[in-house]
Structure formats: C-alpha cells, structure tokens
Amino acid sequence: MPLQEKTSFLKDPRTDMTIQEKNEFLSAKLATTPNVKRKIVRIERIEIGATGWRVVYRTGTP
Amino acid sequence: MRTRLFLSLVAITSLTACPPSNLRNDQLEAVAKDWSLVVRASQVIPVYPLSEDLQPGDVLLVSTPIENQVSIYESKGFLPLDQHLARIYSDEFDEFYDDRYGISADVVPPSHWQQPAGDGPDAPHGWDAAPRASFPSYQFSVRTGAGLNLAIPIQGVPFALGLMNSGQASGTVTISDAYTYGLDNVRLEAAVRRWASEHRPLLRNYAPVDGKYHYLRVVSRVYVTGAVSVTIHNDEATSGEVGAGADRPVELLGVKEGATEENFSSAIATINELAAEQLPGAKIKIATASSRAVTMNETFDRPLVLGYVGFDMPVLAGGRLGAPLSTLEQLNRRPTIARSSAGGTYRLAALRHVAAALREMRDEGDERAGDVLARLDGLAEALPQAYAFTGREFDGSGTAIPIDGIARDGEVPRATWGDVLDFQGYARATVETLERFVNDGGTLTDELQADLEGARSALQRLDEDTSKKPVVMEAIDLAFFGS
Fold this sequence. Notes:
The structure holds two protein chains of two kinds.
Chain A: E1 4-11, H1 19-30, E2 39-46, E3 52-59
Antiparallel strand pairs in A: 1-3, 2-3
Chain B: H1 2-16, H2 21-40, E1 45-51, E2 58-62, H3 66-76, E3 84-87, H4 93-97, H5 111-114, E4 132-133, E5 138-143, H6 156-164, E6 168-182, H7 185-198, H8 200-204, E7 215-234, H9 235-240, H10 260-278, E8 283-289, E9 293-314, E10 325-326, H11 327-331, H12 345-363, H13 367-378, E11 392-394, E12 400-402, H14 417-439, H15 446-467, H16 470-481
Antiparallel strand pairs in B: 1-9, 2-3, 2-7, 4-6, 5-6, 6-7, 7-9, 8-9, 9-10, 11-12
C-alpha cells in the first residue's frame, strides 16, 4: 500500500473553550481511536470557520 | 317551613345543575387543568383524577415523543396515566428509611398506611405515621358562567356558592394532611434494569423508530393528601353592597332573635345536614358560613395521590434502557445535562493510560497488575462479533467520512481490554461526528442514521456490560493508588 497523507478534523465540542480545555480535548482525542493507532505527522490549530484541530497522518508504507 | 326548605334546595340545585354538554366538556377540562396547575406550582407532576393507586416503583410506558408530551402537558395541565406497564415492589424501602415511619423489611409502603386494620371501607387508615409534606395555599376565582365545577376536585364548592347565592366568588384552597414517600433513584434504577432484563422481549417491541424513542417513566416519589380546605368569598357581595358593615347570615329556618351563638351552631348544623343530602358520599364539613364567605373541609376516606416525581429511561434498540432523565425537567422544557456516558472521550483516554500503567507494572513483576489485566481482557468477550455501524469522522475539510477499516458487519477484534477501548473509541467518534453534523444543520441519510443508532446502541450496551464491572474500578485504584 503506497504511502499516503490524510487528514482528520477534531471539531471543538464547545465554542467557549479555554486554551487549556482545547489542549485537554486534543490530548484525549489523540489517546483514543481512531487517532491513537495512526502515524501522526502534524497537528494544526484551525481558528477560521469551524474551529478545532486538523490532524495530518500517514498510511501505507514508502 | 317546608316551602322555604324546598326553595333553598331548588336554588342550590339550580346552581349545581349541569350546563349544556359542550360547555360541560370545556368546564371539565378546565377543572383538570386548573387543579393540575395548582399541583404543578409545587414542582410536582399532577395526577388527575386523584387516585390512591399510584406508588413509587410504578413504571409507565410513554409512547408520545417528548416534544408532544410537553405540548399536552401545557395544554391539559397533566399527563394521562394510560399505559401502566409494571409495578415493581422494591424490598429496599426499609434501608432507605432506616426502619422509620413503620417501615420494616417485610413491609412495602404504602400498604401498612393504607389498610393497617383490615380492608373494609370504614377501616381507619394509618397515614399519620407517614412522612409529612406541606403545600402552600392557592388563590382561585370562579364565575357561574365560566363553570361551577370549580378548578379543584371538591364536590362542595358549587354547594357553597349556592349557600351564598352568588355567581362570582374567589377563594383559597389549602391542601392539608399531605404526606410523601419515595425511593432513591439509585435503588429504583437498578430495580427497573433488573425488571427490564427479564422482560427484554416485551421492551424490544418499543425500540426506537425514525430516531424517536419510547420511554419508561418511573415513579420515584408520590405526594398524597387526606383533606382539602376551601374558603370561598362572595365577590358579588363585596362589590355590590356598599358600606355593608356586618355579614348577612345565610338564611335558614329556626333562627331565634338574640341567641347568636345558638343560631350560628344551629345554622352550621343545618347546612351540614343539607350538604349530606345534596352531596351523598362526600365527606364535607362546613366550618363557617355567611353570605360573604363559606369555609369548608373535605376529607377523603383514605389519602389520595395528587402528584408524583420520577425519571424517564429511553428504550433503546434490543429493548435495552438508556440513562435516566428527570421527568419534571423534560416536561418543563428545562434541558437536562446528559449523564456522562462511561465511554466518554476523557474517560476512554484515562482508561487507556490506566491499561498502559498496568502493563508497565506487570512487566516489572507486579503479579496483581497481571491478574487485573487478565481479568480486564476477559471483558472483551462482551464485544459484539461484528460492527453494527460504519465508523465516521470528519476529514480535514470538515466532511463526515468513513473511518478506514471500521465498516458495518466487519469483524470486531475481541481478544484484549485494548480491543474494548478501541471499539468504544470508534463508536464514540461516530456518535460525536454524526451528532455534530446534525447540529450544524446537516441531514442524515438513512445509512448515516443507521450508523448513528448502531453506534449509540453499541456504546450503551458495552457500557452496561463492561464499564460497571468491579474489575475496572479495581484497575483504576491499582494504577493510581497502588492498592
């Protein structure tokens, strides 16, 4: 299976979250499936439009 | 003398006579609603008509969607008790009440209060021993044209209006001799779940359809009343008689000049005799009566339930039950905080860290950690053989897409505790994604709706079968506290 880069988006569960809550939410999500089984290469914070974390991960083998 | 008595009776009877049928229906509905509003003011769900036969542990089936129930509750004032599904006799009342109020291990209330000395109609009741309750007084007003069957289920009110020869009155109603008893939600919920597991085939018929749920409404506490006191003021007298310094007595025969006390006692006795003739079966006692006001007490043979509080449990797919919600809060349109599911993201993450900690402890030679991990792995047998949903998540552009490898009917790994946490994670991600999709204005296709319901049911089932097991608490204690 060829190497492929994919993204998933973890939408903030609330609009009034503090920075600490946003970080805790990300930590919890990274510790549970499906993210815990992924090879994550980058995480971006999105604040325009829908707010949340964009997780970039890789599948397959080189 | 006979003529005057006859005229009195005619006057009273004419005031209590039935209006035309359509008007009467409106009046009867108004009676139910207004009485219910009186009870609802005390944060109690009204029972109408009053009944002796409702008690904690009664399970009602609610087939009306909650939004429709709210509109019925607001328009009629009460909810009919039409589908009485079961009565659960809990044997834990003595623990809850710590053997007070005459409750012991072999007594399930209210039987020992209702009929302590036999079951004859005149047998005295023993409700005096029950926990007391108190309701505030309520004001009301009534006009002949708007219905003489005043908004309270008390037979003597039209009679009182007849005595005052009034078509317009206001007054105060006091619910007296009130008692309450109940059982805590923890014990009741467990009892209902035991009952539900034995009647799964029945409940399976009430699985959700098109995202709409049936509910089991569980009565957890009831309020009963043994008597109602009513004071009625003649508004026509107060507005029409200018400068009236003294009350005009109710006109009755046998009144003697100058013998005030004797006249009053005689008049009240006569009125009570009249009431007994006019309202056979009613236990009404007139305390005072004049052209301006009548005060009377109505007692019931045995106290009757006038309201209850309870909780609702949704019936899920397969006849399983969801988390309880407050009935009153739902009916009052006050959103309840959904009870945290044991499969919540944070809890799942914590449990995964617990499992990792136990593995480290086991690898360092902690035998107990190894034993706990082995027993946790045993919980994987509770996992289904196949996924009942296709996993869903948002991609980087915010579109709901399938999760790779998690497809409906695909095989579920069932070997370790990690498999349980993985399964819960996929199900939770699916539920969160699709619920968020709907909240953002999206419409679920049939396939996505099926995925949402499948994931919800799976989470609920797994929560019951695994997360409440003692070994999970043991694992948490061992990982965090070492004991």
